[in-house]
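Let's practice the habit of predicting before peeking. Look at the sequence and jot down your guess about where helices and strands might fall. Then scroll down.
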Amino acid sequence: MFKYIVKRLLLSVIILIGVSFIIYALVRMMPMNYIETKYSSQLLQGTVTWEDVNRFMDLYGLNDSVIVGYFKWFGKLVSGDLGESFKYERPVAEVIGDYMWISFAIALIATILQFLIAIPLGISSATHQYSVRDYTVTVLTMIGLSFPTYFFAAIVIRVFSLQLGWLPSGGLIDPGVDYAADFAGQMAKFGDMAYHLILPILVSVVLSVGGLMRYTRTNTLEVLNADYIRTARAKGLSERTVIYKHAFRNTLIPLATLLAGIIPGLFGGMMITEEVFAIDGIGRLAYRALREGDIPFVMGYNMFLAVLTVIGTLFSDIMYAVVDPRVKLAK
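Done guessing? Here is the structure:
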């Protein structure tokens, strides 16, 4: 196991270097850059000249070629410096560290609810194949998979915020409210934040639960047709024992592969959801940085996700071997 992990980590370093160059090249090929975006209105008004813009481009290293610019960025990365964000004017690592926890809280709660809802419904749908329950779950799954995030979020905001007035339409706390620094004030702030996060979490769960339900249903149907399940039923075991003791464990084996995407998803934020609900999570900050050509932040954010993806994939392989003893990790 130890040799396997070391081998995978060494291979991951090579993969991350290749990924970083591809991302940097793609960002540099974008049709805009931070300086031109920032000074576009001043250029039109004539208060800033193109000579000024080129001077700023030299200062920010945007006139360098892709190769030169990449190696300058990579040299800082090797020394542990992700650079300073053009847009936020703070170290990239500091911005990521400050804002990823908001996204993490939303994604963690949504992921837990997603699994608690999707796995039981997927199993129930599979054990009642072609029944009203199965068709209902299938329809709900298709609806969840078909709705774009921004469209469903707009519907939810219109119904629950504008028409019913039950929940706030965005933000993390009520504007203009200043909470005290004592325990009571912080608890009130926490309650306000939880109240504001109900709709974003609802949207995230509804739109993501369908895929997991379908995945669980398919895996369960495959397991239920296995020979050992027929043998267990032939022994006279109850249907509940057959499903939840024998079939359920093997249903979880393919689900272990989902861990590779869960870890970066937890910390990476949800760009569209956070933007629609005006939540300053790491996803929203990354979207704004990408839109304005903030190369250091875009690179730091994507490398952060790339590292989490590598860790998630490795963890998924290990969990696969834990869940299924028949799987042996190659040394």
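How did you do? The CA atoms of residues 188 and 297 lie 33 Å apart.
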